[in-house]
Design a protein that fits this description.
single chain, 497 residues, alpha/beta, Nucleotidyltransferase, domain 5, Hypothetical protein af1432, 3 domains, 6-stranded mixed sheet, 19 helices, elongated
Length: 497
């Protein structure tokens, strides 16, 4: 992390959007401002899993207000992530394109397991530094994250498609609270969460914690009614369900401690929470003060950022090993690609961009484990359909495009050919793969790559005069590369010096 005295985290949840701003003193984060808006995008998905225009507009309006507050912040000081609703939304790119303009900063859509990891990190930073074995639960609008960890280390992380908004829409859509509706909702939640029964058995944890959303809403009501603060028990859940049944509907519900925006989704949230108590044998759930945005902030702090970088490096290595990619060749391609990339940029190194190029090189052959034919397509599919620890889904998709495009025709890529940085990454990766075709370090003596000063859309690769004769196969591959780029808005020329 660069030297800075402030940080901000933006959490685009299915129910609420949150912005937390704070200052850094002696390596610690101290909140100075917290904004929350109930956007409820989670109930804005239509039957085709597209966000409605109204739901998108609610989100854009909120992000515009957040963006005004973040005016003057730099990109290194702000981290924004989106969760389950945008994981599901088929038109999320449309929402994100405008949303990022309104906010003024990139927004990453993170996977369920990455969300779970960050939640645990946020919860753990607010708890004593002990080796206590912890179960952490976060019931959101459209997903529920469950994590097992010890001390600061998450060990088992899962995300399930069950949440307060989704269950309220499905089982309490008319706003009525009936015993049959609660029974049906709990049975359905248990069916989705059934896998958790074997993954999170009571013998694996010493204390259970609940983070954010539903758990805080339930705890607030129980405290207002005189129950002990800081925890939720099964008796408390039974009492709350009786109160909802007595009220019969959201319109008639009057409970101290319950905000109006929580009433329409309390039925679904309570059903999921009761199902978890039953499945996992929970007697008491301690209320945790940390959550997703706190995990983001920890990640942005110096040590957290280093840990995050290491986490992604290790995750890439594990994925490459899992699919049998040759690590020596992957690292070789990465070195050559980065050397060419530095030539294009005049020696200036963007560490973030360089690291992504290295990861793409390490992963470019993972599809070969499935089939040698069209292995680049298989590799791209793997990256678009797997969870890789530490990565946002948007980052993985960017890597998948590089893997898909590292060989063959370029028009197959569904990407923005106006994105110069991506084009530079793609070109240097393709050239590195071609130059390393013999799976040994290529002779780069006299080879240089630049963008034409008069036409920035043209790349010029210069080789020494006798190079083609010495390396005829490489020369052939470079000629094929020139042909491939002719069918795009960009071009490549190979010149002999």
């Amino acid at each position: 992390m660069q030297n800075t005295t402030r940080l901000a985290a933006v959490d685009l949840g299915s129910n609420s959007f949150r912005l937390e701003i704070g200052r850094i003193e002696h390596g610690q984060f101290y909140r100075t401002e917290y904004l929350k808006e109930t956007v409820r995008q989670g109930n804005g998905l239509d039957d085709n899993r597209n966000l409605t225009l109204q739901a998108m507009q609610r989100g854009w309006d909120c992000l515009a207000r957040f963006g005004e507050r973040l005016a003057g912040f730099t990109e290194s000081e702000v981290c924004a992530v989106a969760t389950q609703t945008l994981r599901e939304a088929r038109n999320r790119d449309e929402f994100l394109a405008t949303g990022m303009q309104k906010l003024g900063f990139p927004i990453d859509v993170i996977s369920g397991r990455e969300e779970a990891r960050l939640i645990y990190q946020g919860v753990a930073q607010a708890l004593p530094r002990t080796q206590e074995r912890r179960l952490v639960i976060d019931i959101g609008g459209r997903s529920t994250e469950i994590i097992l960890g010890q001390g600061r280390e998450p060990l088992q992380m899962e995300s399930y498609r069950v949440g307060s908004i989704a269950w309220s829409m499905r089982y309490f859509a008319d706003g009525l609270f009936t015993r049959r509706a609660f029974q049906t909702a709990e049975i359905a939640a248990k069916a989705v969460l059934d896998e958790a029964l074997t993954l999170y058995t009571p013998d694996q944890w010493d204390m259970a914690y609940g983070s954010a959303g539903t758990i805080n809403a339930v705890a607030d009501v129980l405290v207002a009614a005189g129950w002990p603060a800081g925890s939720v028990t099964r008796e408390g859940l039974d009492w709350l369900q009786d109160k909802l049944l007595a009220a019969q509907s959201t319109d008639r519900l009057r409970l101290a401690g319950m905000r109006d925006d929580r009433k329409p989704i309390i039925g679904g949230g309570l059903s999921v929470l009761r199902a978890l108590f039953d499945l996992l044998g929970i007697e008491r759930l301690e209320q945790a003060s940390g959550g997703l945005r706190h995990g983001l902030l920890q990640e942005m702090l110096g040590s957290g950022q280093q840990q995050h970088t290491d986490l992604r490096d290790h995750a890439v290595e594990r994925l490459a090993a899992k699919f049998g990619a040759d690590p020596v060749h992957g690292n070789r391609v990465g070195r050559i690609a980065n050397a060419l990339f530095r030539q294009i940029t005049g020696g200036a190194v963007n560490e973030r961009v360089s690291r992504k190029l290295t990861w793409a090189a390490q992963l470019h052959e993972i599809g070969g484990h499935i089939s040698h034919s069209d292995y680049h397509k298989h590799g791209a599919y793997i990256l678009d359909n797997t969870d890789v620890m530490g990565f946002a889904l948007t980052e993985l998709h960017r890597l998948s495009l590089l893997v898909l495009g590292h060989r063959g025709k370029l028009r197959k890529l569904d990407t923005d050919f106006e994105d110069q940085m991506f084009i530079q990454q793609l070109l240097t990766l393709r050239l590195a793969v071609a130059l390393c075709h013999a799976r040994r370090d290529p002779d780069l003596t006299g080879i240089s790559l630049r963008q034409d000063a008069r036409n920035v859309r043209q790349f010029v690769l210069t080789v020494r005069s006798n190079w083609a004769g010495l390396f005829p196969q490489s020369a052939y591959l470079l000629n094929e590369e020139c042909v491939a780029w002719q069918k795009t808005p960009w071009s490549l020329r190979v010149l002999e010096d």
